[in-house]
Amino acid sequence: MSIPYKKTLSARSSLVSAFLVHLTVEIPYFIFPVLVLTVGEDLNLGEYTWIGLGTIGTIGTLAAGLPAPLFGWLSDHIQRGKMMCLSLILSASGAFIIGLVGPSLIGVSFGFSLVGLGVGLYHPPGLSWVTSAYKNEEKGEYSAYLNRILGIHGVGGTIGSSIGPISVFFLIDVMTWHEIYIMWSFPLFLLSLLFWVFVARHESPRIKSEVNYKKNSGNILTSNLKFKINSNLLIIFVFMFLMSLTWGMINFILAPFLSEIKGFEISDAALFIGVSHLFGASGQLLGGSMADRFSEKTALLFASALQGIVIFGIFVFNIPLVLFLLYMVLFVVNAIFWPVTNSFLAQNTIQIGSAFGGFMLTVNVVRAVGPTLDGFLITLFPSNYLLIFIFGIIFSMGAFLTLIPIKNKK
Asked: pTM of this prediction?
């Protein structure tokens, strides 16, 4: 069993600091998808352009996901603030390298892998940092508003994922895509320094828990966990798999789909997606509120069903205003997924960091398949996105059906 931290920061301070780190570390990661076509032109890969771009996307996502169990285990045993600080440094270093190497497939792949590694390193300790801040160690209970708290934390990441694309809209005419990446590396380096000086280095080491649990209550907990691992957690795992595969495929082609099929300029597509991301932040709060008021199952059923409908609408409609509304709803739906599943895990495990690590491994490894599948499908059928959208709808509906056996607790 992991040993808790002595809480030297208030719960609110812990949440605010994690919010800011989460926001910043996500920025470079979400710049790449809106620059896919521009990067592809520079790489000069000919007929293999989309396979190369899909490979870069897959490498970055795998870097975020594969080490997650290790990061989760570390966040249960060492100081989380140090890991959060290092996540900023890795993401900043990756952005700087991408800008420095120029049009090199190997160089961009390596830089994006560092960016992905930084994002992956943040989540287990960051989520553990926030959930632990809102846990009553004596009673072993979390705040009754944990879903909403995690939703607020998630808003930081969603805002960060919108700032990158929006910056592309304003900077692409005055900077190259390399210079945009270099520019963003500096705020990340600066925040890592500030976070270390004012927060991370003041974090207390772990202390032994003074709580004495009754022997029989531990046995009940063990049997309860065993039951949930065999049923509810297994169902959630399958749900996570299908939703992550859908988002991995759809998210990677949202910008090029607007440019190649809907006739948008690349800069306009970047703004379109960035603003949609920004509005999507409300989904973190919506998901948390829905789960607290109704149940985790209700929130996830709503998200998966709506996702399939919206994906269909994006493919069919061409009116810019309608497309904007659909993109906005799509990002809201994806945001709902995060606080609800994170809360579900936190309430059904003892070693929080390890649980979040396993969660991020599953999500990111499955998501990593998406860009590669996109690359092969578009290489086989140039400028034809139909199969990608069909798969997205099928996987969304499959996720919806997967959840039905779970019994609502509320």
From this structure: 0.78
8 Å CB contact between 292 and 63 = no
Q: Strand, helix or coil at 50?
A: helix
338: pLDDT strictly greater than 70: yes
Asked if 330 contacts 257 with a C-beta cutoff of 8 angstroms, the reply is no
> What's the rounded Cα separation, in Å, for the pair 132 and 11?
9
| Distance separating alpha carbons of residues 161 and 176, to the nearest angstrom | 20
Could you give the CA distance from residue 104 to residue 83 in angstroms, rounded to a whole number?
A: 30
Query: pLDDT tens digits for 45-87?
Result: 888 899 999 999 999 999 988 998 899 889 888 889 999 999 9
Burial grade of 223 (CB within 10 A; 0-12, 13-18, 19 or more): exposed
Angle 385-387-390 from CA coordinates, rounded to 5°? 110
The one-character DSSP state at 136 is: E
Q: Residue 77, Cα to own-chain centre: how many angstroms?
A: 23
pLDDT beyond 70 at 329: yes
Closest to 338 in 3D by CA, of 244, 263, 234, 272? 244
CATH of 11-204+222-403, one of 3.30.9.10, 1.20.1250.20, 2.40.40.10, 1.10.220.10: 1.20.1250.20
Which helix (H) or strand (E) element contains residue 124?
Answer: helix 105-133
In the DSSP assignment, the letter for residue 135 is E
Residues 245-295 pLDDT 10s: 999 999 999 999 999 999 999 999 999 899 998 888 888 888 888 888 888
Q: How far apart are CA 79 and CA 390, in angstroms?
A: 44
Assess contact for 377 and 250: CB atoms under 8 A.
Answer: no
**Residue 395: predicted pLDDT:** 95
SS3 284: helix
User: Using CA atoms, how far apart are residues 407 and 109, in angstroms rounded to an integer?
Assistant: 44
| Domain range annotation of the chain | 11-204+222-403
